[in-house]
Amino acid sequence: MHDFDHDLVVIGGGSGGVRAARVAASLGARVVLIEGQRLGGTCVNVGCVPKKLMVFAAGYGDALRDMAGYGWQVEGARFDWPTLCEGRDKEVARLNRVYRHLLEDANVKLIEGWAKVIGPHSVQVGDRVLTSRYLLVAPGGKPRRTSEEELPGSEHVLVSDDIFTMKELPRRMLVVGGGYIACELACVMNGLGVEVSLVHRGTGLLRGFDECLRHELANELRMRGIHLRLSAGLDRVERTDTGLVVTVEDERIEVDAVLQAIGRIPNTEGLGLESAGVQLTPGGAIAVDDAFCTTAPSVYAVGDVIDRMQLTPVALAEGTVVAHNLFAGEDRRMEYRDVPTAVFTSPPLATVGLTEQDARRLHGHVKIFKSTFTPLRHKLTGREERVMVKLVVDGPTDRVLGVHVMGEEAGEIVQGFAVALKCHATKAQLDSTIGIHPTIAEELVTLRREWVPVA
């Protein structure tokens, strides 16, 4: 191990890279981490954390409107975008410092700069060359941007990262995309008082999620005043004296900002991976095996750059697996089944396990239990927001295969049910569980009647 300057050089200071570095160092490895931007990666800087703070901000707007039904009178309330931005950025800066301290406390050496792989055991940072027994590549991903050839006027278009440096809140915004980032940011902007239109080439939102969730969410967004235009594409963006004019199929729409959230791509450009013999997939992600080893035996990769599941907790788990396998002599593997996830729209939704469609394909005979209702909170607010809960159950074994929730605190609810799925819980066990009344979560243990879709 001492033929090299280091035992592990990590490229990327996001969730997966930092976790791997810290665990490896705790196991006795000499570790260096290289990062050219702020520590914390996408999640801390332009993802989970600042986005969730903005979701909270939008939620307070809903709360203000709901208060009247409960007897509260609020006069003169107004929203101030700079105040939100200042508080959000302070929290991000605090977390940047926390990540730095975590590395220092773990005796991981931090080098600030841009890394380039120059061989299977070598990395260059500026004029400096580092050698290491192993390299771990974890630079994350970045928003996909369209070119001028793909979209005339693309220079006027924002991507999701730009939301966090936007100086003014637009009055009218067009959001392009149908994934979770597009839907979340459309809801945030709508909740902050922006007039929002969402355009998506697909026939429905949130491809890959359960069809009932997709349908119910689209209805909720429309009820909130978000103008949805599905099966349509953005053709052109033009700057005018009063804003932007976008052409969507045969319609010209005037807005103040266009946000394009059409996916993220692995951040592999310029890393020099070819010099180490690292193979990329056709989509530009790093190809790895079950142990996260690339086609170069000394080079590993985790996180969004391998494009398996773009979730922060997944990257943390992957980084942990690599560190233990390399420096504790273990043979761990990552389990991607029954990974819970949430989409922080308004209302939010969360899911764990199989969708109804996947369950029918994989298991054949399944039973569906589903309920849609108005939550107690909105009996007095007058808001027509709905809740949906759904269980997907294997017919022969009674095992719960999927849990899907749309409604307030959906993520908090589904996190607990994710444990139940890991324990192979059955529908009978859920039925025998006493619910907490009155809550949304209790609906999942009181569903008795099998749901049959109307043909």
Question: What does it look like?
Answer:
The mean pLDDT is 96. Helix 1 (15-26) packs parallel to helix 7. It is built from 11 helices and 21 strands. Strands 1, 2, 3, 4, 5, 6 and 16 form a 7-stranded mixed beta sheet that branches. The protein has 3 domains: 6-142 and 265-327, FAD/NAD(P)-binding domain (3-Layer(bba) Sandwich), CATH 3.50.50; 154-262, FAD/NAD(P)-binding domain (3-Layer(bba) Sandwich); 341-445, FAD/NAD-linked reductase, C-terminal dimerisation domain (Enolase-like, domain 1, 2-Layer Sandwich), CATH 3.30.390. The longest helix has 25 residues, at 81-105. The radius of gyration is 24 Å and the shape is globular. The protein is an alpha/beta fold and 455 residues long.
Summed up, what is this model?
The protein is α/β, with parallel strands linked by helices. It is 29% helix and 24% strand.
Oligomer: single chain
Count structural domains. 3
CATH fold label of the largest domain: FAD/NAD(P)-binding domain
Question: How many DSSP-defined strands?
Answer: 21
At the first level of CATH, the class of the largest domain is Alpha Beta
Query: Would you tell me the structural class of the helices and strands?
Result: alpha/beta
Outline: globular
Helix coverage percent? 25-40%
> Radius of gyration in whole Å, from Cα?
24 Å
Sheet with most strands: 7 strands, mixed
Q: Which stretches are poorly predicted, pLDDT < 50 over at least 5 residues? A: none
**Number of DSSP helical runs:** 11
CATH architecture of the largest domain: 3-Layer(bba) Sandwich
CATH superfamily of the largest domain: FAD/NAD(P)-binding domain
Strand content: 15-25%
Beginning-to-end CA distance, first to last residue: 65 Å
Mean of all residue-level pLDDT scores: 96
